Amino acid sequence: xxxxxxxxxxxxxxxxxxxxxxxxxxxxxxxxxxxxxxxxxxxxxxxxxxxxxxxxxxxxxxxxxxxxxxxxxxxxxxxxxxxxxxxxxxxxxxxxxxxxxxxxxxxxxxxxxxxxxxxxxxxxxxxxxxxxxxxxxxxxxxxxxxxxxxxxxxxxxxxxxxxxxxxxxxxxxxxxxxxxxxxxxxxxxxxxxxxxxxxxxxxxxxxxxxxxxxxxxxxxxxxxxxxxxxxxxxxxxxxxxxxxxxxxxxxxxxxxxxxxxxxxxxxxxxxxxxxxxxx
Length: 279
Fold this sequence. Notes:
This protein has helices at 2-11, 17-32, 36-40, 47-63, 67-71, 92-105, 122-130, 143-155, 197-200, 205-208, 217-225, 245-254; strands at residues 73-76, 79-82, 112-116, 135-140, 162-166, 177-182, 187-188, 209-210, 230-239, 257-264, 270-277. By secondary structure, it is an alpha/beta fold. The protein folds into two domains: 2-63, no CATH class; 86-277, Rossmann fold, CATH 3.40.50.150. Strands 5-4-3-6-9-11-10 form a seven-stranded mixed beta sheet, with helices on both faces. Helix 1 crosses helix 2, helix 1 packs parallel to helix 4 (47-63) and helix 6 packs across helix 7. The radius of gyration is 20 Å and the shape is globular.
């Protein structure tokens, strides 16, 4: 009965039914480790627990603040990550980026990776948890983001395996790498008002928006300078927004990269662009 009342609270505030169900499952899991199996078995919540869920949902529907920020947690690659207003909430599309980097790692005995714009640290932490023989430098321009990434790395017991440091793209980078990976800001600032309230009002502008009209600002900077930081036969791999892959491909071609590959996500949108350095 209480589950229906949770859903009704969402629906009366114009939320989608599937979104409501998904968020309720997430709230119950995070707060009480209560899963669908418990629901099927008829495991009841105590009154103090239902009261706590109501308070969380009321804050969510009234403020439109993302549920992950309210609870301070998100899931990525089936693992828990701490999040706050200083970092992007990890998206399922970025899991595809991690999977493709892991595939590229098979080309190297002990891959050296640079992660640009680490945010919560979900990319490097997932990579090293999946493949322990890699070396990762992970940078972000935001000191607050670096602190969250370190907290997540400590939680997953991989802080000694990843070097986090502040850098404006390559400004403080000294090494060379087999793979450079980035999920950079790629939304033109002019498009801000078209975004969901949860994104435009609560997620960090620094990690979302570009000054140019095509969202290419950071792709151009990374592509232009990456030759100075890639080892022979090294790769560069990006996540990108819808309708951006062809522009990125042309820019890679004009900077003499080869073996350019565009990969679609589960919605059949172009999502990943990767290319190899032309030695």
